[in-house]
């Protein structure tokens, strides 16, 4: 998104689908999803704007399942605005009928730049926006405008007005971003990297992320497992377990099942049963909606 309101569409973070989606590839076919880059002056704290839309009239309801993500979303739907906090377990939502959501995804660690109180106060909760901010009716009406440019332009302006820059916010955002692809799986190692004591690191994550460092490390690894399996890239789970810092293949499988209810191979088999079978290496899957 440019400063003057023009929208720049981006690819979802999970190879053309939501990162950590474990319900099925059908989730990418029954829900239209688009993501947009935030304005440049918000990119350090905002990961992006997104839209989800569905029309299941005359069809069975559809359940979407996502591995928890250490990010807070502000979601606008059906005349309401809600703060969706960091989810520390599997996110499950059943969609039916017809609907549309417009939302902004904050960067993990950026919560206190825009929201009052510690990020942990919003964890595992969906909080009505009007419980936290005054005079939200105009914002909600603007974000639900017919045109996406005007809707996200209004949301960007509101975020600028709320923004509070802070060294700890910047530190938290940087630390969480550094975990992806790092192979780190020990809290004490992350604390040393940050130059903090373990207790100070835990307090930083509680206040600015909304989850513990251990939980965030776990999500990063499990999301990577889901992405690799869904993309058809996993041949040897033992090798993947080693790459991601698990003790062994059994440890990886237990951890994945504890969160998703299925093992990596069980998830792979559920993909195989879908029309079209699993994605092949290099196949980016269904394209984002235009």
What is the count of helical runs? 11
Give the strand order, joined by hyphens, for the main sheet.
Answer: 1-2-3-8-5-6-9
Number of domains: 2
**How much strand?**
15-25%
Q: What best-fitting shape do the alpha-carbon axes yield?
A: globular
Structural class call reads: alpha+beta
Give the topology string: H per helix, E per strand.
EHEEEEEEEHEHHHHHHHHH
Characterize the structure shown:
The structure is a single chain. By secondary structure, this protein is an alpha+beta fold. The protein folds into two domains: 9-162, no CATH class; 167-272, Arc Repressor Mutant, subunit A (Orthogonal Bundle). Helices cover 37% and strands 17% of the residues. It has eleven helices and nine strands. The protein has helices at residues 27-30, 111-114, 137-143, 148-162, 167-179, 187-194, 198-208, 213-230, 237-243, 249-260, 264-272; strands at 9-10, 32-36, 46-55, 62-66, 73-77, 80-84, 91-95, 98-106, 126-128. Strands 1-2-3-8-5-6-9 form a seven-stranded antiparallel sheet. A two-stranded antiparallel sheet has the order 4-7. Helix 9 (237-243) crosses helix 10 (249-260). It is globular, with a radius of gyration of 19 Å. The relative contact order is 0.15.
